[in-house]
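Q: Predict the assembly, please.
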Amino acid sequence: MKCGVLFSGGKDSGLASLMLSRYYEVELNTFVFDEGQVKDTIREAAEFIGLPHQVRILGKEILNRATEMVLSDGFPNNAINMVHCEALERLAGLYPVIADGTRYGDRVPFLTHDNVQRLSSRYGISYIRPLLGFPKTEVLRLANREVVITYGETGDMDNGDYEGEIRNAIRMRGFDPSRFFPSMHQQSLVTGKAGTSGVST
Amino acid sequence: MKCGVLFSGGKDSGLASLMLSRYYEVELNTFVFDEGQVKDTIREAAEFIGLPHQVRILGKEILNRATEMVLSDGFPNNAINMVHCEALERLAGLYPVIADGTRYGDRVPFLTHDNVQRLSSRYGISYIRPLLGFPKTEVLRLANREVVITYGETGDMDNGDYEGEIRNAIRMRGFDPSRFFPSMHQQSLVTGKAGTSGVST
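A: Predicted assembly structure:
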């Protein structure tokens, strides 16, 4: 059975994909707003994970909607959740089983119980969050066994979590994105297979 | 790393154990109130799962406390949760990582977020619920690939979910347990390895 996993290039979605690949025919799916924005680092991360990788385009309309939400809210949470939901809905139209790397305790992105129910019943799909019941310590322990992880701040780090493109769009409108996005938001990127030296970025 | 999983003999705790056995040195742990109450069906279920199995004794005091809770509440939920918490605390004293087969949407047994935090910080352990993010359809799909499952009603089914012994204790006190326990509470028992004909009970 095919399973489409939302893949940012980071440790959580990478580990979730590897866990599910034991049971499902997993495809990694990275969503970007603009086709030109697909990072080589994410393609490389997918290669280290060793599963087929699809890049999918959310489009300018969703980017505009997200940018306006951030500007009017003054913080990015609702916008990031909206984009995450949109990406999951697109996957739900393509696969019988969809998944992501969200964990219990994640604030953003994270679907409410109602949104989870709506997604499953509207599209008749299963939505799996394999890491939901794993505490952070165990996610780190297991991820480190499978892959090499590099950490950095959003903005310095070329992963695929929507934030980079929204920051650029805010900058294009003449605002300073650091006013809207929390600093010290650590991101991770898969940069090697465990047991190798990895590729540092 | 050793991981002690609460094992009732049913499909959920069986699947959770198999999932974790890829990453941890898993031991199945079945808790009973009275040593004489360990069912052969559960020992057989553990053999079908193929992982080491420990039987642990909760003791008469916990059985009495649970029985009194059911009688005074008029329903078993709080008592079952109390026993489940007690069993997890005992495991937390024995293993660095503990786990069970509870799922999102399970009402009983299910730990509140506060109880999960308390358990982890008090004992300095990780508590994993590998099935938390799996919808029921997918738990069934994956469990059926690994094991043969037999279904039945509590009372007709010799699995290890504490209910049988509490029902007996209520009967011994001169009450009819069916007044306190919901009917049509379907239970499952692992009765074979997938790909075999299984053992029917």
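The radius of gyration of chain B is 16 Å. The first strand of chain B starts at residue 2 and ends at 6.
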